[in-house]
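Standup notes
- DV: blocked on the single-chain target, sequence here:
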Amino acid sequence: MIRHSVILKLKADISSEAKKAYFDAVDKLAEIPYVKKFEVLKQTSTKNKFEYGISMEFDTQEQYDAYTNHPQHVAFVQNFWIPNVEDFLEIDYELLNG
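- DV (later): unblocked, structure below
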C-alpha cells in the first residue's frame, strides 16, 4: 500500500472563484482509477504555514504511477496546481510493518 499525501498552501491572492474551481478539480481526482481513501483536509494547527492536505491510497506502486501519469492528473497539475499553489510538501508512505 502507498499513501500519497500532499500538504499545501494556496497563493495569497487567489480569488474565491479560483479557490472553488481548484477544490472542485481536486475532488475530481478521486475519479481516477485505483484511487482509494481519498480525503481533502483543512489544516488546524498553527505549527506550520500549510493550509490544506490531500491524501489517497494505492494498492501498488504501479497503480500510483498510473495515477501520476493519468491525463486527468496531468491536466490538473497544469491547469489548477501550478497557477494556484504557493508551496507544498509531498510525502508518499508505505507501511513500515506491512
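- Follow-up: The beta strands are 2-10, 36-42, 52-58, 85-94.
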